[in-house]
Write a structure and sequence with these properties.
With about 325 residues, the protein is of the alpha+beta class. About 25% of the residues lie in helices and about 25% in strands. It has two domains: about 35-190; about 240-315, no CATH class. It is elongated. The model has no long low-confidence stretch (mean pLDDT about 90).
């Protein structure tokens, strides 16, 4: 009789556990599926960027999490502290499921002096099943507002609210940063993957474009090789003036003296200058053509001398 009663209670207990587990799982799914809005403050020093973790609430729903972080007022927290509107779209790897990415689009302003609020980001799930990314945000009691399509549960590691460094499960530790990482675009989008522009219309870039460099000093800067079927340079001041009657052509003796002293042709940059400053493709082509034209004049002059000598020799032989 007692065994029968115990068996009934055991079944009821197991059913209760199943119901409770189901409710907890359902609550977790509902929590993750709920959009989240709020604010947080990053303490510490104003000249440091501290790790703030965010939960990938969209992962179990099979879509990317979208997180907006903003400061609309440039005077929030302090006069000219700065404004920032940033949009992050991310998906964590969680043990290597791949298709992971963190894309960011950042706009920020602080008056006359440039200020940066975001120093970098990191997927912190490469060796664990957590749902965490890290974004390094400026400290100094700086307030941030956020909105996400799923729960993100920001947690601040500034040495005040939570101790530094942040320990990734089965991974490295992360502390504050003092500089902005090179992969961060401070005034626009940063993407993990490649881009295809398949439209046949015009694509316009007003500023400098860098390929293989984050600090282009010209309209196009390429740190690497360029393969092209054709290169056309618009050039003015072509060197046909060499063939003018009054062109001051150096005699070969002067050219020889210059070469002995400088180890390169007149007006042509030295190897050290090219190594330091590079060369202007158009100017260099013009200079090379100038030297070819000068060489042509020297050949014409030498040919005249040779013809004159041949006539003298022929005249001597005829006597």
């Amino acid at each position: 009789m007692n065994d029968i009663i115990i068996g009934r209670y055991s079944k009821k207990f197991n059913c209760s556990i199943i119901i409770i587990s189901f409710c907890l799982a359902l609550s977790l799914i509902c929590f993750n599926a709920k959009a989240q809005t709020g604010s947080f403050n990053v303490g510490g020093d104003i000249d440091k960027f501290y790790p703030v973790t965010f939960y990938d609430g969209g992962w179990d729903n099979n879509i990317a999490t979208e997180l907006s972080i903003g400061r609309s007022s440039v005077h929030l927290d302090a006069t000219w502290r700065g404004s920032c509107i940033a949009l992050f779209r991310f998906h964590t790897t969680r043990w290597g499921h791949s298709s992971q990415f963190i894309d960011a689009d950042i706009k920020q302003f602080s008056g006359g002096t440039p200020i940066r609020f975001i120093a970098g980001w990191q997927d912190a799930t490469g060796a664990n099943g957590n749902y965490i990314i890290i974004i390094w945000l400026k400290g100094g009691s700086t307030t941030y507002y956020y909105h996400a399509n799923y729960a993100v549960s920001p947690t601040v590691y500034d040495g005040v609210q939570n101790a530094l460094p942040y320990q990734e499960t089965n991974g490295p530790t992360y502390t504050y940063k003092t500089t902005v990482e090179a992969y961060v675009n401070n005034a626009g989008p940063s993407y993990n993957y490649t881009a295809f522009f398949n439209g046949s219309g015009t694509n316009y870039f007003n500023g400098n474009v860098g390929i293989g460099t984050t600090n282009p000093q010209a309209k196009l800067a390429v740190n690497g090789d360029i393969y092209s079927k054709k290169v056309k340079v618009t050039q003015t001041g072509w060197s046909d003036y060499v063939f003018e009657e009054d062109y001051p052509l150096l005699n070969l003796g002067e050219v020889e003296k210059y070469i002995r002293q400088n180890k390169h042709l007149p007006e042509v940059p030295s190897a050290k200058e090219v190594e330091k400053e590079g060369i202007d493709l158009g100017d260099n082509q013009s200079m090379l053509l100038k030297k070819i034209e000068e060489l042509t004049l020297y050949l014409i002059e030498q040919n005249k001398k040779i013809e004159a000598l041949e006539k003298e020799i022929k005249a001597l032989r005829s006597k």
